[in-house]
Structures are given as C-alpha cells and as structure tokens.
Amino acid sequence: MKNKDSLRDLSVFGLLLAIGVAGRWAQPDWNFTPLAAVTVIGGYYFRSLLAAVLLPVGILAVSDLILPAHNSVAVQISVHVMMLVPLLLGRMAQHSQGWQRVSLGVLGGVLPATAFFVVTNFVHWASTGMYEKSLTGLTVCYVAGLPFYRAMLAGDVFYLAVLVTCLTIATARTPQRVRVRA
Questions:
Q1: Residue 98 pLDDT > 60, yes or no?
Q2: pLDDT at position 178, please?
Q3: What are the sequence ranges of the domains in the chain?
Q4: Would you report the helix, strand and coil content of the chain in percent, each value rounded to 5?
Q5: CB 25 within 8 Å of CB 66
Q6: Which residues span the membrane (predicted)?
Q7: CB within 8 Å of 174: residues ≥ 6 apart
Q8: Cβ(86)–Cβ(80) below 8 Å
C-alpha cells in the first residue's frame, strides 16, 4: 500500500511540476500562470513538507532556465520567497474543514497575487534604478505593475478553481451514479 501511495504522490508531483513549468513558459509576459495555484495544491496535497516546498522551488528553477532573468537578485529572491504565501495557505487548508476551508480557498485565489504584487513591486522599486526613490516613484512602480497583478490574480483564481475541481474528482472515494431521465 505504501509503494502505491508513493507512486501516486510522485505522479502527482510530476504532473503539478509539469503544469507549473508549462504554464510559466506559455505566458510569462502576461503573468497568467498556474504557479501560485499549483503551490496551494501542493501545500494541501502533500503530507511531506519537503515535497510541498520542492514543488514551487522546482517549478521556478526549471522555468527560470528559459525565462528572461530578473533585473536584480533582490527581485528574484522576493519572487521565490513570495511562493511561501500560497504554500502556507495550502498547508493551513490541510487541517481545516467546512467554511474555514472555503475561506482558505478564496484566500488562496486572492492573497498570493496581492502579496506578490505588493512585495515584489516594492523590492523592484527599492533595488533597481528604474524608478525615482520617492513616493511618486513608488506609486509609478505600483501603477506600472497593475496589468501584471490583474493577470496574476485572474490566473490564480482560474487555475486554483480548475485544480481544486480536478483534485476533488481524482480523490473522490465513491463514484457517483448518474441517472439519465428519458
């Protein structure tokens, strides 16, 4: 039984890794990617914290091989660190039920993109020379990031809904009978 569970977990890990990498490669300019949603699901699905952490690290490591480099090490670090937000939401959902789990699901669709936007844009403003180091420069930086925030928020909500639905169907214990009325 343990080997069967290990094989299933390895298969799920590989599938989620592939979805995350392919999603980042397919739409890097738009930020409409499954990265945060896959990280929420990984945090929820895997009992092992190591597997849950390695999933976003692996997605970022593999996809960053082809994607353009960040314009500062600080920005790259902030991007990687911000994947802790969806990971923690997924871990919290493991131990929740009912409305608490629904609330975490809603947060899982909204909070990662919002936290990512706030933190990475601040780090971008602070660590690069692209914007004036003033309140006006910071505001301009955040305004410039709004299209990417909207796309990331939409991607997080869309992919999380799809992945939660797939996970629910895949882990259903008893198949439902469908009655067709003539």
A1: yes
A2: 47
A3: 2-170
A4: 75, 0, 25
A5: yes
A6: 36-61, 73-90, 102-123, 157-174
A7: none
A8: no
- Plot region of 36 (φ>0 → left; ψ -120 to 50 → alpha; else → beta): alpha
DSSP 139-156: HHHHHHHHHHHHHHHHHH
Pairwise CA distance, residues 178 & 182, whole Å: 13
Q: Residue 77: which of 126, 43, 32, 114 has the closest Cα?
A: 126
Mean pLDDT over each residue of the chain, to the nearest integer: 88
- Paired tokens of 95: 């131990």
Count the Cβ atoms, other than its own, within 10 Å of residue 116. 26
Rounded to an integer, what distance in angstroms lies between the CA atom of residue 43 and that of residue 164?
12
Q: Please give the Cα distance from 130 to 141 (Å, whole number).
A: 9
Distance CA 69, CA 20 (A): 18
Long-range contacts of 1-9 (CB under 8 A, 24+ apart): 9/46, 9/48, 9/51
pLDDT digits 0-9 by tens, 57-85: 999 999 988 887 777 899 999 999 999 99
Contact 41, 164 (CB under 8 A): yes
Q: Which span out of 5-19, 77-91, 100-114, 162-176 was modeled with the highest average pLDDT?
A: 77-91
